């Protein structure tokens, strides 16, 4: 087991990499714990859970709602939970975001820790202290910043994760390679998702390096006012096509990263060879969707999302793998760049 510490204004979080879930209670400081998880995870991994109160909810993004939050508060009251107790969220990004929000608002904050069970949650969602729920169609509109006491990452959970969910999580791993640690790219170049999931040492190293990259960013900018925005690399455009074509999140982000690299090259920031490198990598990882986006419609969605920030849209771009730059671009400029994109012409 390796331990990293994330220190921020809202607290300190121990990130335990390769710790067994069976050792959970060695880390809960003798507190009474209540586990929040979803039905699918419990059906597949339930026998590993300790003998404590377990709240199970249906899986899926729709659980991240204020309605579900209210039901959970009522359940915590029924279980007699108070501020000396701890909620342990065992699940993917949905359960961590929701559990984090419930624990930080119930009685103005009870104990909180995460056991992320998807690759995306292990490398991204469970790290960094952003908790929240959706408000109708507006994602993560209501939320809090607070670090969990600890994040216990046990890669053995990934054995039951559906392959499409594993592949989706790989997009975020590639993101950390591109924005922060190019060594990650070198480790997965030429590999297929199955080769990565079947190689325990490689998988552990990818998780650890991604966590390290996220910890470094969040330590400097917990509340997303500056540097943390680089974590949105590929997400501005990605969110647009995710909604427009109902794509899995990872594939949408992967396509968004290719677009961001292409724009970086068009603006003279990055060398042309980066395009081929990233394209080939994402193709091998089965992350590139076969779509021809209607750029006008994508732009409409991107501009609408960012409307409140004024006319220019901050785009995270690259000078090279590991070197980011944020450029505010007007919608007209972005449209021009999108028209010249050479996505699938390599
Ligand atoms: N807070 C943050 O910083 C942050 C960052 C990135 C994403 N997110 C959020 O994360 C959410 C997406 O998270 P996700 O991709 O983990 O999706 P998810 O939590 O919906 O999990 C995906 C599916 O995998 C199943 N599952 C989870 N672990 C499993 C396991 N070990 N074995 C078998 N099945 C398993 C779940 O039941 C679910 O059906 C989004 O709501 C997104 O907004 C938050």
Main sheet characteristics: 4 strands, parallel
CA-based gyration radius? 20 Å
Stated plainly, the CATH topology of the largest domain is called Dehydroquinate synthase-like, alpha domain
Q: Distance N terminus to C terminus? A: 42 Å
Largest beta sheet: what is the strand line-up? 4-3-5-6
How many extended strands? 11
How much of the sequence lies in strands comes to: 15-25%
Description:
- By secondary structure, this protein is of the alpha/beta class.
- The chain has 2 domains: 2-160, Rossmann fold (3-Layer(aba) Sandwich); 163-339, Dehydroquinate synthase-like, alpha domain, CATH 1.20.1090.
- The protein contains 13 helices and 11 strands.
- Strands 4-3-5-6 form a 4-stranded parallel β-sheet.
- Helix 3 links the parallel strand 5 and strand 6.
- Helix 4 (119-125) packs parallel to helix 5, helix 4 runs parallel beside helix 8 and helix 12 (295-305) runs antiparallel to helix 13 (331-339).
- It is globular, with a radius of gyration of 20 Å.
- The N and C termini lie far apart (42 Å).
- The mean pLDDT is 95.
- It binds nicotinamide-adenine-dinucleotide (NAD).
- Nicotinamide-adenine-dinucleotide (NAD) binds next to helix 1, helix 3 and helix 4.
- Residues 38, 40-41, 44, 59, 61, 64, 91-95, 97, 117-118, 120-121, 124-125, 128, 130, 140, 157, 160-161, 165 line the site of nicotinamide-adenine-dinucleotide.
Short description:
With 346 residues, the protein is α/β, with parallel strands linked by helices. The protein has helices at residues 39-45, 66-78, 93-105, 119-125, 163-179, 183-188, 193-197, 200-220, 235-245, 249-266, 273-284, 295-305, 331-339; strands at 2-8, 11-17, 33-38, 53-57, 86-91, 111-116, 130-135, 138-145, 150-153, 313-320, 323-329.
